[in-house]
Amino acid sequence: MQALYRKYRPKTFDDVVGQEMTITALKNQIKENRVHHAYIFSGTRGTGKTSVAKIFARAVNCLSPVGANPCNECKVCRGILEESLFDVMEIDAASNNSVDDIREIREHVAYAPAVAKKKVYIIDEVHMLSKGAFNALLKILEEPPAHALFILATTEPEKIPATILSRAQRFTFFRLKEEAIQGELARILDLEKRSYTDEGLAVIAAHSDGSMRDSLSILDQVLSMDDGVVDGELVRDALGLTEEEGIFRIVDGLFTGDGALIVDALNRAYDRGKNFSLLLDALIDYFRDLLFYGYTREVPKGLSESEGAAFEAHAKNLDEGYGFQVLQLFQQGREQFRYAKDPKTVVEILLLKALHLKDAGSLPGDEIVSLDAAPRKKVPVKKAEEPRKETAAVASSPEEKTKDDETIPEASEGQQTLSEARDRDIIEGDKTALAEDRWQEVQSAVREKSVACAALLKDVQSTKMEGNRLTILFQPKFSFHLQMLKKEANVKALAEGVKEALGPETTVAVEAIGDADDDVLQSIERVFKDVTIEKE
């Protein structure tokens, strides 16, 4: 069976994807009979350089051209397509790079073509010619016969001598946009009568590095694995990628300091034979996208609706300083793969270091944001004019009393942090609130159903348990979370998780807290009710 990239190689200029400017210029030269004697096609692999060179060779020699396109039916076109016409020669400079190889061309180029209008020499990877070979080629290009046409294809034009560059017209072939690749893949799958999803094509396009040939090679591999639908899961399995859910679980573990969640995600990736080098690349890309989201507000392409919701939840709760530190750590760790015997160990150590960065609080300013708690703030507090002994209730022991001539220290010095005070207020001040350990059970159960839904629960302000009804409360600023939790998939995952954790009779509702003021600050004010608290 013929490979897809050969089976669907473009036959006319109109079939070429993503190189509109180059194609337009070449077609105009053919129409106006202004074909040059030498061309340089430069660009990354798989962007169509050799394919366009062959189309161009047929177009300038075609006996019955269709506009500027070759007919592909006349004897000249058929001869070039079947590689049986000696007037058109394709030479691989990687293996024919000596001066003798180019001298042989110089000897034959002087003779007129036997059948075609022009003798065409397509030299692929021309940058690999030796110095002597380049000098020999230069002699040909200085005084070429009228019937000669040279097309030099290269991925490294900077290695071609300036004397060669100055004697040829240069066209650059750019990397293809992902949208163009997806469109061509969809066309080919329609012709192959195979079902596909947009997500599956997006994953292929994202990993093809702008190369149409690479994307078709990936598609070929995917089609050989399964005769079902070409979707995101199938493509990731074919490429040995870690599924997006695994990335979300790892990032959840980093943000919450949950090492067990990270280990579980890594073990799943290992059991499924995932490539840990690609896993680290995916984490680097994910943190890069999280940091860019703060400026662009754009969710990366290729994510499903629920995955996009989880991504936005991560982005909105990421401390930028921590994000840059983790990104730098992963980038440096990427270099260790060339020396490591076990890539899994490298990734595990890097993630341990990332957890340590969070726990150590090494960042300047505020502490690292965690998804399961509001960002901690330092609130300056004053002692009341007549301090009371009740303020000692927040000290670490009953003996630690606040003296009359002392100000109350910041929360980090012998007092609860703001988030701890908030949690204490929820559990002890409101007897209807769900206990913290039970709430953790709910989150774990929901996470098993949907990682995206569980990510939305990280920003819950408080809970209420009244009979068999659990009410989950968000601050008004989290309206996006409320909207996403009303989606059918998230409603189902949340309901099933709550029933599993709290009992089959339990129902759940999600609501916004009526007051948009800082609930954390209100909680502190209730705990330190006899102390004046100033807002900055």
UniProtKB/TrEMBL annotation:
Residue ranges of region Disordered? 379-424
Query: Which CDD domains does this chain map to?
Result: AAA, HLD_clamp_pol_III_gamma_tau
Q: What class of enzyme is it?
A: transferase
What reaction is this protein's catalytic activity?
DNA(n) + a 2'-deoxyribonucleoside 5'-triphosphate = DNA(n+1) + diphosphate
Q: Which GO terms describe its molecular function?
A: DNA-directed DNA polymerase activity
EC number(s) per UniProt?
2.7.7.7
Biased region (Basic and acidic residues) positions are: 382-391
Q: AAA+ ATPase domain: from which residue to which, for each copy? A: 35-178
- Which keywords does the record carry? ATP-binding, DNA replication, DNA-directed DNA polymerase, Metal-binding, Nucleotide-binding, Nucleotidyltransferase, Transferase, Zinc
PANTHER family in the record: PROTEIN STICHEL-LIKE 2, REPLICATION FACTOR C / DNA POLYMERASE III GAMMA-TAU SUBUNIT
Q: Which NCBIfam families match?
A: dnaX_nterm (TIGR02397), PRK05563.1 (NF004046)
What family does this belong to? Belongs to the DnaX/STICHEL family.
Protein name, entry field: DNA-directed DNA polymerase
| Origin species | Aedoeadaptatus acetigenes
Starting at the broadest rank, the lineage of the source organism is:
Bacteria, Bacillati, Bacillota, Tissierellia, Tissierellales
